[in-house]
What does this fold into?
Amino acid sequence: MELDGNSPLEIGDGEVTTYKKYFGQKHGIQFHFEHQCLLKERHIFPVKNYCHGYRQAKDRGLSFKLYHTNI
It folds into this structure.
């Protein structure tokens, strides 16, 4: 099933709204192309290489997020 911004979204208390309204009210995100399909995304965690332990000590101060998008 392909979802777009106008597809129904059931909120935890049984209320039904659209993705467009939900993200606008909850997160302040405005959809520019509400009829295009929504993308499915998941968080990718960094993998540690224990053979290179010295690099992890250097990189501790750095913080960033990686995201993977399935198209």
